[in-house]
Amino acid sequence: MSAWGDFNDAPSLPWEEERAAINHGALATFLEVAFGYCDGLIPVRGFVDQGQGIDTRPHNIWIPADATAAELLGTYAAWAAREGSAVYVIPGTVAEHGQARAEHVRQMQAAVVDLDTGDVETKLAHLVHHLGRPTLLVESGGRTAEGAAKLHAWWRLTEAAEGQDLVRLCALRGEMAEKVGGDPHFRSAHQPIRVPGTLYRKGGVERVVAIRQHDPQREVDLAEFAEAVTAMPYLPGQAPHQASPQGERPGLDAILTTPVREGAQDGWTRFQGASAAIGHFIRQVHEGRQTPDQGWEAICGYNAACLRPAWPLDRLKAEADALWALHVDRNGPPLLRADGAPPASVPAHTLGALLDDTSPMPEDLIGPRVLTPGGMLVLGGAPKVGKSDFLISLLVHAAAGAPFLRFIAARPLRVFYLQAEIQYHYLRERLQQLRLDPAILARARDTLVVTPKLRMLLDEQGVPLVAAAIRQAFPDAPPDVICIDPIRNLFDGGPGGEGENDNAAMLFFLQSRVEALRDQVGPQAGIILAHHTKKLSKQQVKDDPFLSLSGASALRGFYTSGMILFRPDEEQTPRELHLELRNGPALSPLLIDKIGGRWAEVDRHGERLVRQDLGRKLDAERTRRHDVILQIIASEAREGKVYTGSAFAAQFENTHGLGGDDTIARRINVLANKGYIKFLRAAPELGIPVSKSSKGYLVVQDMLFGTDGEAIDPDTGEISRATIPLLPTHYQSETNSAVLPVENPEVWVLHDPEAEAP
Predict the structure, then answer these.
(1) Fewer beta carbons under 10 A from the terminal one: N or C of the chain?
(2) Neighbour-count burial of 663, counting CB atoms closer than 10 A to its CB (0-12 exposed, 13-18 middle, 19+ buried)
(3) One Pfam family this chain carries (predicted)?
(4) What pLDDT was estimated at residue 246?
(5) How far apart are CA 625 and CA 623, in angstroms?
């Protein structure tokens, strides 16, 4: 062919020259040393070398650690060369695209130390002397202040390290760097490193990252290598306690005000400084303390004031976007603050519109107006007053759609009970001991979800965790009720760390934690908060029960309804329940008690209005006489003695504090009417003749009659009087005091309405 037609003489195109500048053999050698035994994906990073006068966003890819890795990395390196980017890898593999944090690294197969300052050759000689020659020695392209080539020394392991071996390997990388003055950042598994065979262009100087030495047969056993690193002394003149930069990171105030220079001259890198500052402002935006525009403005201000030189805005934006996505993934949807919404966006209605709106009112969650959609009910009570027991019963009935006392749930509600007091086993014991209608328990089995005792705060980490738990509990529909018990154990007062006595902290908790949780899972859900009360006198509580709520007064101004449960008399079991409704008419206080294992309203008509203390003393005295009479009847029977009513009154007149015979006779008649005393007409086989009394001999429950026989204790040999059960034949009717035959003497029936059923 003529000269003009010989295409081999045509000049190379620019991208062909750049591809030729990449050393593909060095790429393949490096991949074999660093990833030859690994599985998974290799995170590849493209960063712009400073000093070229160009700004390019970081570019990241993930390539499989297999036979295709060299070709794929070569293609990427050629592209990076055209774009002015340096090529780095994280020298370990991950499982999925997008993973690049330290905890994502699954495998590594080489120990590396980066010698980038001081007398590099002396440091290398020290390493070789104590650890043996490296498998791969790379000139990274940079130069020290003394003009020496910066080096990466690699020791290939006999197999890939994972799990605890991976942790051990990273610790060895940090120890090696510490003992010779290398880059301490390689203590972290995700620290990237330059790839041999690619281009170095920092400061406008172009060099190929070159392999100085490669010994393909050189491999080290991790355990033996670890022993050698441990035995290796510090390089003379090297401080033996050089802490890693992560341990020296300044506090938040210093982060936001301290300049960070290129090349980790200040003990940590610009990347670390920018990440910490960006993370701080992202948290502010996520929690609603700043608008997105304010957050971005603050990030740009930090970049301009503290990073030397400042990052390009596109790189800053890329890093902020990545950290924002990561923060939302970890902590859930943000509570975004509105960017100066126009006045029209604030709902406002004319008087006429409100008067003309006759649409139906929203259905109460728990009526009447005790818990409304989007409302908040606070239940307060002193410790041990029965607050949690009362609350559990209320929630079970609400979850079943059943009435409870005067409170009504129109339908079965989905209830999530976040409680932080009762541990799992005691929680299940308490729930299993509920003496409620089985039909109610059956309806509430799947609609009431309860947590065991939690050791956490409802803070910026706790809110998304609880939100996730609620979504998992009710995947098909949002919850109707979220209950938090108690406030104190989950309280987070914000960044200042103030407690529940501070009004600002209480408002922060209610708005930024409790309502933020509701907004994430069900904006129309009702909230129930259990809270403790202060120690006040009984009279103070009666005068204004809601002043007894513990902590900041802001709580009372925030809730839509309140309940206070307290015991008006510590010696009596009934409690008073006072209610305060913001969205409905006032409700009169309830007098409630546990009767037969269930909460019930007590009739106030039987309550004494005057001389209550004297009345209680008289009641106690009657109860004492009741018990004494029954005990005497039982003890006398053990001695083989039985009495008619009149004989008993005459025998024990003015003894045991029982009073005269008339008083005793009246008490016996009361006890017989209530079923505590029944009667036996005769027992000739025991020597008890037919009674001449119209009723018979007095008999009490589980009464034993002493006979003439002897009983010998098989364990002690003790001889005592033999006894046999003595059963009644007749009882006294509670309606007309007539004496009637007992149907089944083995079954003892009481007619006392105050006695709790067995």
Answers:
(1) C
(2) middle
(3) AAA_25
(4) 42
(5) 6
User: How many Cβ atoms from other residues are within 10 Å of residue 27's Cβ?
Assistant: 23
- The DSSP output letter for 514 is I
Number of Cβ within 10 Å of residue 452's Cβ equals 14
Q: What is the mean predicted confidence (pLDDT) over 308-327? A: 79
The DSSP bridge pattern shows strands 481-485 and 415-419 to be parallel
What does DSSP assign to residue 354?
Answer: H
On the question of pLDDT at 1 being above 70, the answer is no
Q: Which residue, among 105, 133, 139, 103, has the nearest Cα to 120 in the 3D structure?
A: 139
The DSSP element (H or E) to which 697 belongs, if any, is strand 697-700
| 533: DSSP letter | B
Residues shown for the chain: 758
The pairing of strands 481-485 and 448-450 is: unpaired
CA distances 596 to 387, 545, 602, Å, are: 18, 28, 13
Identify the three-state secondary structure at position 203: helix
pLDDT digit string, tens, across residues 244-303: 444 445 666 667 777 777 655 555 666 777 788 888 888 888 877 778 888 888 888 888
Under a CB-based contact definition with an 8 Å cutoff, are residues 78 and 197 in contact? no
What are the structure tokens assigned to 437, written together?
Answer: 């209608």
Q: Is 197 exposed, middle or buried (0-12, 13-18, 19+ CB in 10 A)?
A: buried
Q: Where are the alpha helices (DSSP H) in 511-592?
A: 515-521, 538-543, 554-558
Dihedral sign for Cα atoms in the order 520, 521, 524, 530: negative
Give me the residue label for tokens 């108690």. Answer: 486
pLDDT level of residue 753 (50, 70, 90 thresholds): low
The first and second tokens of residue 507, run together, are 């408002």
| Residue-wise pLDDT tens digits, 17-38 | 444 478 889 999 999 999 999 9
**Six-digit token string for 239:** 């401080």
Residue 584, pLDDT > 60, answer yes
602 CB-near residues (< 8 Å, 6+ apart): 574, 591, 592, 593, 595
Q: Give backbone dihedrals phi and psi of 221, rounded to 5 degrees, phi first.
A: -80, 135
| Residue-wise burial string across 200-239, b where 16 or more C-beta atoms lie within 10 A, e elsewhere | bbbeeeeebbbbeebeeebbbebeebbeebeebeebeebe
Mean pLDDT of the region 421-439: 88
Tokens of 696: 């018979």
Spatial distance between the Cα atoms of 157 and 107, rounded to a whole number of angstroms: 12
Q: Which amino acid is at 85?
A: S
Q: Residue 107: its pLDDT value, please? A: 93
> Residue 311 contacts by C-beta under 8 Å, 6 or more apart in sequence?
270, 274, 303, 319
Q: How many CB atoms lie within 10 A of CB 144?
A: 15
Write out the DSSP string of 398-414: HHHT--BTTBB-SS---
- Tell me what pLDDT residue 287 has: 77
User: Contact 365/371 with Cβ under 8 angstroms?
Assistant: yes
DSSP string, 642-687: --BHHHHHHHTTTSTT---HHHHHHHHHHHHHHTSEEEE--BGGGT
Nearest to 400 by CA among 445, 436, 430, 431: 445
**Which of 360, 380, 381, 363 has its CA nearest to residue 372?**
363
62-111: pLDDT as tens digits: 999 999 999 999 989 988 888 888 899 999 999 998 888 888 899 999 99
Q: In terms of DSSP H, where are the helices of 420-500?
A: 424-432, 438-444, 462-473, 487-490
Instruction: Tell me which DSSP letter residue 743 carries.
Output: S
Are 483 and 449 spatial neighbours (Cβ–Cβ below 8 Å)?
no
Higher local confidence (pLDDT), 332 or 1: 332
Look up residue 215 and give its two tokens.
Answer: 């010994």
pTM for this model (two decimals): 0.43
- Does the pLDDT value for residue 484 go beyond 50? yes
**Runs of H (alpha helix) within 525-611:** 538-543, 554-558
Question: What pLDDT, on the 0 to 100 scale, is given for residue 534?
Answer: 81
Question: Are 725 and 744 contacting, i.e. CB atoms less than 8 angstroms apart?
Answer: no
